[in-house]
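Q: What structure does this chain adopt?
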Amino acid sequence: MTILTAATAATAATAATAATAATAASGVQQTAGLYDGTTTLGLMAARDGIVGPWVYDHFKPDAWPQDSAATLGQWSQMVRAETVIGEVMARLQLHSDGDVLSIYHIQAGTVGQLTTCHSYRMMTFTRPTPADFTAQMPQMRSYADLRVDRTAEILTQAGNLLPYFSAICAMSPGKMRYTHELLNIVETIATRLVLQVKHSLACKRPETYSPQVQPIIPTPAHGTLPSGHATEAHVMALVLAKVIRDGSKKVAPETTAMLLHQAARIAVNRTIAGVHFPVDSLAGTALGVHLAKYFFKLVSGDTSIDELAFSGKGCGGTDYNPQNLLPADNEDPSAAEAQNLHRVEYTRSHVLPTDDALQSARFKWLWDEAVKEWA
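A:
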């Protein structure tokens, strides 16, 4: 799983190279840092030579609006990422009750001068038993036969998923700055959320069930279910597909399907590598699709939240087959439904008060900027 936090996803790809790639390309440094000593001394000398008598009260810049998404464009990419991620993550909470782990959306509101807070359950997870994981071992053996064919993908996807999606959509970093930024952010949110789910469910990796598994990459030091790669890949695929459709009137009809096929292939590669069971990818895909639909609601200002339930208990030899995410001949990413997967059921829909829409102003600002790049 690609562990991308705001200090890595949003920083490693951009801010960490601000003094090199970003500066060389644009001359604008993206984050605060240090000049070399000679430049600092030169700036001190230059200032002394040009500023003249000290004058400070004839120019009064206007104040920026307080707590407004409109100021996001003023910040560096790293700061903007942390600002957006923080707002979204503050609304997602987990709670364990026996064998069931629940993810909740937390909705804050006001009644008069009082602040209210309501929770709406989005999804539940029931983990497989050790016997269920044992029943998946024959599939682990079968998937291992594909290692020679998939090694290049497995190795490169361990660190960065974005090239596998950008190649489908001709997504140049130079022209699609905000799209790249949005995808890094949704991947980061997915990572942070799935790591919490993994911790709570605490499922052991395939290599603990047999010394014959022998993964071809280092096994990540966290639980196996849900698969983080499956979660992240499906979030990225659906968000990218939706942004493209929102911004462009002309979209290749196979784009959404191809992005989803790529996401599924990324998930399967983790089983081939020996670090995930098929049921892990099933759970991760369900979480990724449902999280992507949640992001769509943050943009549209929807007032409903669907609740889904994933149960791994009794999964036995269930294989990973995500082919039914979209209805036949439907390329609209909004039509993707996690409940079309095995082991996933629709429970109910929560309707929020009409004045408590799900919209996130910060997330929507970035989304809208990304959509403009596809016009």
